[in-house]
């Protein structure tokens, strides 16, 4: 199982389907809409707190 992190969405462009998460105590992380686990339309809002894992890709 991958290590889990907590961070805050810095920005997310729903039209383009990507953005960045500021990882607490670490570097910013790129996020693509296909990685969002959610029902319905997959998007994030700026300043939203999220839990995530990091994968090489």
Structure description:
- With 57 residues, the protein is mainly beta.
- It is 0% helix and 46% strand.
- It has one domain (4-52): OB fold (Dihydrolipoamide Acetyltransferase, E2P), CATH 2.40.50.140.
- Strands 3-2-1-4 form a four-stranded antiparallel sheet, with no helix packed on it.
- The radius of gyration is 11 Å and the shape is globular.
- The mean pLDDT is 89.
Would you summarize the structure shown here?
Helices cover 0% and strands 46% of the residues. The protein is mostly beta strands and 57 residues long.
Topology summary:
Layout lengths: L3 E10 L4 E6 L4 E5 L16 E5 L4
Shape: globular
Low-confidence stretches: none
Task: Count every helix, treating DSSP H or I runs of 4 or more residues as helices.
Answer: 0
How many domains is the backbone divided into?
1
Question: Which class in CATH terms?
Answer: Mainly Beta
Major sheet attributes: 4 strands, antiparallel
Strand content: over 45%
**Averaging pLDDT over every residue, what do you get?**
89
Helix-and-strand structural type: mainly beta
- Total count of strands: 4
Order of helices and strands: EEEE
Descriptive labels:
mainly beta; globular; single chain; 57 residues; OB fold (Dihydrolipoamide Acetyltransferase, E2P); 4 strands
């Amino acid at each position: 199982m991958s290590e889990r992190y907590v961070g805050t969405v810095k920005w997310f462009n729903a039209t383009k389907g990507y953005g960045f998460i500021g990882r607490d105590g670490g570097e910013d992380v790129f996020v693509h809409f296909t990685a969002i686990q959610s029902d319905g339309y997959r998007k994030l809002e700026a300043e939203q707190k999220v839990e995530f894992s990091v994968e090489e890709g």
